[in-house]
Structures are given as C-alpha cells and as structure tokens.
Design goal:
- The complex is a heterotrimer.
- By secondary structure, chain A is of the alpha/beta class.
- Chain A has 11 helices and 14 strands.
- Chain A has 2 domains: 221 residues, P-loop containing nucleotide triphosphate hydrolases (Rossmann fold, 3-Layer(aba) Sandwich), CATH 3.40.50; 52 residues, no CATH class.
- Chain A is 33% helix and 28% strand.
- In chain A, helix 8 crosses helix 11.
- In chain B, strands 1-2 form a two-stranded antiparallel sheet.
- The chains are: A alpha/beta, B mainly alpha, C mainly alpha.
- Chains in contact: A-C, B-C.
- At the B-C interface, helix 2 and helix 7 of B face helix 2 and helix 7 of C.
C-alpha cells in the first residue's frame, strides 16, 4: 500500500509555478527522500501533503484518500517535523509535547505516557521543565521530532531534520529515525545532506525546477548516472582523454569522468597531470542531475 | 563625549528612508490619533464644561493635546523601537562595526523621532485654528521649539527606562507607570489648579506639567512668567544631559560587555 | 470534538497567561485606576450636566461603565490583532497547530474565545475598582451586564481577527488602531454622551458596535433598566457585526494560508 501517491501535482503562486507536475509514491514502511536544491519545490510539496497548501492541479492521495478529503482520523496518523524551529516559546519542554498532544484531542493519560517515553527516546528527560529558548539547536530539533511523534503516527514527514546541527547531534537523530523505521513507520524526508539520504532512504526522488528529474534507490541512481568511480581532471585535459568516448561532464576549470573501471581513465592520463579520483556517491548524482551552478 | 555630524547625518538619512516606506502607518498613528482626540474631546466635553480658565474648553484643550502628543511618540520609539533595532534585528551592531559610534546612534534616535513628532504638532495647531481655538498664532509658533525640545527630554527619559528594564516584556510598565500618569495628571484635559490638592502636588513631578505651564499661556496669548520658564528650561536641560549620559553608559554595558 | 479542540487551544493561552497572572492583574487594575482618578476626580470637578436615563449623575458614575466597556474592547482587540499576529507570523504557532488534526475554525475560535476571556478579566477588574470608589453599584443588574459584555468582547475579538487576516506586518495595525480602536475609545460615549456630536458624527458613531455596547452597559448598570426592544436591537447589531467579521476573517485567512 502507498501512504502517499502523487500524480502530476502542481502548485502556482500567481504567475510563479513552484511545482510543475510531480509524480512519486511513498510505499508503507519505507523511507523516501525528496532531494533538490533550494527552491526546487520540496517544501511546497510537503505542505501540500499536510493540507497546509491547496493543489493547483493533479491528484494527491494520502492513505488512499484525496488530500482535501483527508479525515481527522487519517490526519492523526501523520506527524510533521517542519524545517524551522516553531516550538512554542511560551511553554516548557514537557508542556510543548503535552499541549501539542491536546490539539489532537488525545486522552490526557495517553499524552502523559507518550511525553514520558518520547522525552526518554530523544534524551531530553533532564530538560523536561526547561523553557524551550534555553535549549541548544540539537535539543530543539530533537524536541520537534518528539513533538511530531506525540500521537504515535504511522507516517512522519521530516523537512531537513538535521540542518545546522553538529555531527554528534546528527548521528543521534539518525539513530532515532532508523529505530522508527524498524518499528515499521513510514518516513518522507528532505535534506541537503547526501550522506544522510544515502544512510536513511530506501528510495530517492530528485526534484528541480518543480519537476522530478529521476528516482530510484541510492545504488540504482549512482550506477545509472555516475558509474562507480569519478575522476576530476584539471584543464587542459590531455587529448587522448578528450577523444575518448568516456562519459564526462565539463564543470568549468575541470572535467569529470565517470567510469566503472578506473583503469580505463588512468592509462589515458600522462604523468604530471593534476587530477583526483574517488568512489562516486550520491552527491555526484545530485550535482550531475541538478547542475553545478549556484542557485538563487 | 563628542558627536560626529557626518555620522549623524548618515543615520538620519537611513531613518528617513525607513520613514518614507512606512509613512502611511506613521502618519495616521501620529497625526490622526491626536487630531481625533482633540476634536472628540473638544466637542464632547465642550458642552459639559462651560468655561475653563476663562476660555472655551476646546481652546483650553488645544495646547494640552499638542504638548502631550510627543510623550507617546517618543516613549514608543525609545523603548520598543530602539529595542527592535539592537536586540531584534541587531541593526545597531552592524552600524557600530562602521565608524559610527554609540553616542551618534543615541542622539540620532532622539532627534529623528523628535522631528517625526513635529508635523503632528503643526497639523494639530492648524486643525485647532479652524476650530477657532488658537487665540495667539504667534504664540503657537513660538511654542513649537519649546515642544520640540520637550520631546527630546521625554525621549531621553524613556530611553533610560527602556535600557534599564531591558526586556520588551517590561516596557508596558513604562506606559502604565510613567507615560499614562504623566498624560493624565499634567493638565492636558483639565485645569490642574481646579483639581483636588493632592493632584496639584503630584503633577509637579511630570515634565509635561512644567512644559504646559509655559506653552498654554503662550498659545492663549497670555503673559508667560519668564523667571519660571527659565527655571523650567534649566531643569529640563539638566535632565536631558544627565539622562543622555546615563543611557549612554548603560547601552555601552549592554552592547560591549 | 469541535469543543474539545477549541478548548485545547484556549487552554494553551490560559496556561501561558497564568504564569503572568500578577502582572496582568496589576496592569488591569492600575490602568482604570489612573483614568478614574484623572477623569473622575480631575475632570469631575469641572464637568456638569451629565445625565443617564434622564437623571443627573456624578461624572465618576458616568465613566465607570464606559471604562468597563473600553477595557474589554481594548484587551479583546489587542489580543486577536497584535498578539495573535505575533503568534501567527513570528512564532509560526499557527503552522504547528494546523499540522495537527485541528482546523482553521478551531484555531480562530480558540484565539477569539481566549481574547474574550482575557477581556472579561479586564472588565471585572474595572468593575471592582469602580465599586471600591463608589462609581458603580454591585447588585443583580450586573448579572445582565456581564453576559452582554462577553458578547461585546467576542465581537471586538472577531474584528481584531479581521485586521490580523489582512495584516502583512506589525505596522499595518497602526491603521486598525487609528481607524477602529481609537474611534471606539473617543466617539462611542466612553467619556461623554454621543449626542454632543453633530448629527453626521452620531450616525458614524452608531455604526460602531462599541457605541451600542456602552449604551447598554451604562443604562443597565446605572439606571438599572432598559427598553427591551431597544436592548434586543442593539444586541442583535453587535452579534451581526461579530458574525460578519468572523466570516470575513475566516475567508481571508483560509485564502492566505492555503493558497
């Protein structure tokens, strides 16, 4: 069963088309990553799924229900981790969870039980009675994730959950997200960190300019677009290499060569040429598909 | 403490650009509110109060509303406005990274807001003139520099209160404990001399009361007690200088320590 | 479920307000005190010929009901305009609520009912201060006044919501206060009878719900009686403004958030 099924969804704000026809699915129990540069339409897509933004065209089904007809019971099964820290600044850590839970109309005893276990799950127990403005950036993110889990949702949407955090805090969050996956939860994630996507996602959808560029598992995407190895060769590139039919991409000062067998490039490189060689990763796929130019 | 004229000029230009963008909101807030107060109270109480201090109520009210208008504008600007700039958007810090110094910023804030409050004075007098409520036009013109100076003094006082209280949450106490009492007990709406005795004594602590003692006779075309006016002016000048220095020191602590 | 969710949203505001109870009580008592002293005693010394229901009354007695209505009006208007806008715009409080099963109707009703509650607190403070200075008599007629005041505060809160639904920045509320709140402060009979104004101004004044509210509250609390037909008409007008304002605010907000 698909938790999310988007077909040709579009969204325009006046003349500006933020999303120009996106298709993707989020099967139950998987983690899907929605990747794209700033302004690609990711956040708008997330907001449409949450019903915070209406569709201009297309069909979007959440739990098999068209998004504008989602029932209260279905909305209870979705948890949202927004991009910005929108914790309630007037409340304590624990109150942030309890009051948020009350908006779902949950039983008081259930909320308290959930708050206890989530504070522990996110390692915030000691801070339970602190004001939220006294928390560090990492703690705030953990609290926002805990808050999204208050109604024990089946499906969790995470909009850049680890942006701006130090490596320790990120690892902690990754661990908890993997635990959620083990519990059978479905996750939809956006991020700018390719290592994060590679680590957490079963399937990745790359969007840019409001359209889907490609999708597949991290492995599939890598082998499809950037092979196993990448060579970055400084210009001027030797003629032998230039004449070869190896898959390559000119990025200005240097040229990237993608191959499965590194020897194929190596023997074309004379001594004294400046180059780097590494195993290719999702970052290469991302840059290849969305271009190397700066956005915005 | 020296001031740099080019720095102040540059800052004034920057405030002016901001002012121009928000001119609608500023203008209505500053001018229209005062004019509405003047007309409403002048008409509304005019018939209940036959004569006050020997003139029609609306004539008595005009200099009161004029003198009181700056109190609110200066108070809001030197507390909420200032706090926004150095805590909210931290724009002061970006200015301080240039040759602009703290004293330039503080003086510019005061002067700019004083200038901003001045059109509402002039417009109020013009409206009052059409209601036949300005007996001495020359007196009204003479009262303008007095009121402009008075606005600087009010601003320097609330600037201190704002920086010492520190948090925006507490600024409403400035409104409740200083601005409103001053406005209500300095004789803006009624003649303090006819009020209960405790109120007459109480009024003395407010600068607005002393300013009105000078401005009201001026606008009503009556002789001003020059000796008394000179004493008031000296006291207000001292208050301004002391308040400015205190505020400077406290801001220095807050921003640089 | 509707009430449970609205209550949850109301309770969130109550919880944060509770921590500031004493400072809120102080300012709600202090502000009317200032006005009652200044106008009741200072102005009262020079004002003559103020009448309610045909009988001449003390100026202090005249302004206490006006101050009650004013405190309620100001508190309710402020809470759903500047405060609600801060929660909506600065703290993304609305976004976090709308990400839950709570709907826009719940959210707006929560804000409006909370604002009305807070306003009623201010009203009761003025009532008690007025009673202490013998500006108002506490008897059974108050049981009529309080529900009427609640309806009035509800109406002002929905009107504040309209301002919030239009506002793009805090500066915009300057218009709301200049063209709505301040006129209701000075043209609606808080300090002096509306019939002192030229007929044109009186017409405009009676478009403001505040003028009707002040009329009702003053007649009920000072004279103790009011013509039932007139009372019903005035209440219906206030309710009508509230309903229209709610519809406008909802339409606007919905458009703004979801489109």
């Amino acid at each position: 069963m698909n938790i999310i099924h988007a077909e040709n969804i579009q969204k325009s704000f006046g003349d500006f088309e933020a999303v120009k026809g996106v298709d993707f699915k989020v099967p139950q129990g998987t983690c899907v990553g929605l990747l794209g540069p700033n302004g690609a339409g990711k956040t708008t897509t997330m907001r449409m799924i949450m019903g915070l933004s209406s569709l201009s065209a297309g069909s979007l089904k959440v739990f098999d229900t068209p998004v504008d007809k989602v029932t209260r019971a279905e909305k209870m099964k979705i948890g949202l981790v927004p991009q910005e820290d929108n914790l309630d600044p007037d409340l304590s850590v624990r109150q942030n969870l309890e009051i948020y839970g009350s908006y779902f109309g949950l039983e008081k005893s259930f909320i308290q039980q959930q708050a206890d276990s989530l504070l522990e799950f996110m390692q915030l127990g000691e801070k339970a009675n602190n004001r939220v403005n006294h928390l560090s950036g990492g703690m705030k993110r953990r609290l926002i994730i805990a808050r999204a889990l208050i109604a024990d949702p089946e499906f969790i949407i995470l909009d850049e959950p680890t942006t701006g955090l130090d490596p320790q805090a990120r690892v902690l969050i990754w661990k908890s997200l993997l635990k959620l996956k083990d519990q059978g939860k479905t996750l939809l994630l956006t991020t700018h960190y390719m290592d994060e996507a590679q680590r957490l996602c079963d399937n990745i959808v790359i969007v840019d300019g409001g359209k889907v560029l490609d999708e597949g598992s991290p492995k599939e995407l890598i082998s499809r677009h950037v092979k196993n190895h990448v060579f970055e060769v400084q210009k001027p590139v030797p003629e032998a290499l230039q004449d070869s039919d190896i898959d390559h991409e000119d990025i200005g000062d240097s040229v990237l060569y993608y191959v499965n067998n590194p020897d194929k490039v190596k023997h074309l490189l004379p001594d004294g040429i400046t180059y780097t060689q590494r195993v290719s990763n999702l970052e290469d796929v991302f840059l290849r598909l969305t271009g190397h130019k700066l956005r915005e | 403490m020296f001031f740099s004229i080019p720095n102040i000029a540059a800052l004034m230009n920057r405030y002016y650009i901001e002012y121009r963008q928000l001119i609608g909101a500023f203008f209505f807030g500053d001018v229209l509110e005062r004019v509405m107060f003047f007309i409403a109270f002048g008409m509304g109480l005019g018939r209940a109060v036959a004569q006050i201090d020997g003139v029609d109520y609306i004539t008595f009210l005009a200099p009161g509303i004029a003198a009181g208008s700056g109190v609110f504008i200066m108070a809001v600007a030197t507390t909420y406005g200032v706090s926004n700039r150095y805590e909210g958007s931290a724009i002061w810090q970006s200015w301080l990274a240039t040759p602009v110094r703290l004293q330039d910023i503080l003086l510019s804030e005061l002067i700019f807001n004083m200038l901003r409050a001045t059109p509402s004075l002039v417009i109020l007098y013009i409206v009052a003139y059409f209601f036949d409520a300005v007996p001495s036009v020359s007196g009204a013109i003479l009262s303008l520099p007095v009121l402009m100076f008075a606005n600087l003094v009010y601003g320097s006082i609330t600037l201190n209160m704002g920086v010492y209280l520190g948090r925006m949450l507490y600024f409403r106490y400035i409104q409740a404990l200083w601005v409103m009492p001053m406005y209500l007990f300095s004789g803006v709406f009624f003649d303090i001399k006819e009020a209960p005795e405790w109120m007459q004594v109480f009024a003395n602590i407010f600068p607005l009361y002393h300013v009105l003692e000078v401005v009201r006779p001026l606008v009503l075309g009556r002789p001003v007690d020059l000796a008394q006016a000179l004493i008031s002016f000296t006291v207000l000048s001292v208050i301004f200088v002391v308040a400015f220095c205190l505020a400077y020191n406290q801001f220095k602590k807050r921003l640089f320590d | 479920m509707f009430f449970k969710t609205v209550y949850a949203l109301w309770y969130r505001h109550f919880l944060t307000w509770k921590t500031m109870f004493w400072s809120s009580l102080t300012s709600n008592v202090f502000n009317p005190l200032l006005f009652l002293f200044s106008f009741g005693f200072g102005m009262g010394a020079i004002v003559e010929n103020i009448e309610v229901g045909g009988q001449v009354v003390d100026y202090l007695v005249y302004i206490v009901p006006g101050m009650m209505a004013y405190s309620g009006m100001f508190t309710a208007s402020f809470e759903t305009s500047i405060s609600a806008f801060a929660r909506y715009y600065m703290q993304s409080y609305w976004d976090q609520v709308l990400a839950t099963p709570a709907m826009l109707h719940h959210l707006m009703m929560g804000e409006i009912l909370w604002a009305s509650t807070k306003a009623m607190f201010a009203v009761v403070c003025v009532l008690l201060v007025g009673y202490l200075f013998e500006g108002v008599v506490l008897d059974w007629s108050i049981l009529w006044v309080l529900p009427v005041m609640f309806l009035g505060c509800f109406c002002f809160a929905t009107c504040g919501m309209v301002a919030t639904s239009f506002a793009k920045s805090f500066e915009m509320f300057s218009y709301f206060f200049t063209f709505w709140v301040t006129p209701m402060f000075i043209f609606s009979g808080v300090f002096f009878p509306v019939d002192r104004f030229p007929e044109m101004v009186q017409w405009l004044a009676y478009l403001l719900p505040m003028t009707h509210l002040v009329d009702i509250v003053r007649d009920l609390s000072v004279a103790g009686v009011m013509d039932a037909g007139v009372l019903m008409m005035k209440l219906a007008y206030i309710a009508f403004v509230a309903v229209v304002a709610y519809a406008v605010a909802y339409r606007n907000m919905k458009h703004r958030i979801f489109d």
